[in-house]
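Shall we go through a protein fold together, starting from nothing but its sequence? Label the sequence line and the structure token line clearly, so we can match residues to local backbone shapes. Would you write everything just below, so we can both look at the same thing?
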Amino acid sequence: MSKGEAPALRMRVENMRLVPATSYDQERLASYRNGSELRVVVTQKKNDALLRKYFAILGRVVADCNTPWKTKDQASEALKLALGVVELSKTVNNNFMQYPRSLAELDEPEFTEFFEQAMALLQNMTGVDPLTLGAEAGDVGEDQPTPTATDLPAKSEDGDNPGEVANDAAPSSATLSDGDKKSLAYLIKQLVASVGPDPQVVIATSQGVAAEYPHMSDFAKEKARTIVKQFMSVCEGKNELSDALEYVCGVAGIDPKDVEGAE
């Protein structure tokens, strides 16, 4: 096996330095000459216990609460759609299409944030704190399968589009009203104008819009948080404005023409 084919090195952060996590990693690192420049892509191992807890809670929610889902997998796919954990693409007719990302693609901070938002959304839907259900479940077990990079939603019974999810996979309360879409379109326009070197301007602008639209649904507020993060990433130089604009229009379920002239 060549160095390029070997598994990734596991490193541990100690005093602002990366050190080999195991003797095997130390041996592999020593195989490089002193002074060699290495390209490093940093990822953080996901908290497997939290992932098991997530699926254990979904199992209890589906079994004990009034939800539109039949399985925890359906619930997970719907939550990812609702919270903007999606991939966006276009159909042959140039229409936007979104489908849930794999949880395996999320790093530790991303998954932790998704978990917290999912718990809040479930509590809003059911009126029950899902974390109490998780506590009642006790041992979350070791047999929950870790999602793979290909865990796309099941094919819809109404079509062959792999980006579609069966109707019973989306919560009835997790839909955007026309008023919500109008509010999000206005938010996007305002945030485009606020993009600059200081991300705090984006935050302040979003707070101003929230004050103007106090009756926005909880689901729309979750979408708004995702939208704000996209524009903050533009301020931080991590994303292009045109790409962010296309993405957030998909998240908000609006046509980019509705915010034309925003760039």
The longest helix spans residues 108-126. The chain has three domains: 1-42, 48-169, 178-259. Confidence is low (pLDDT under 50) at residues 139-173.
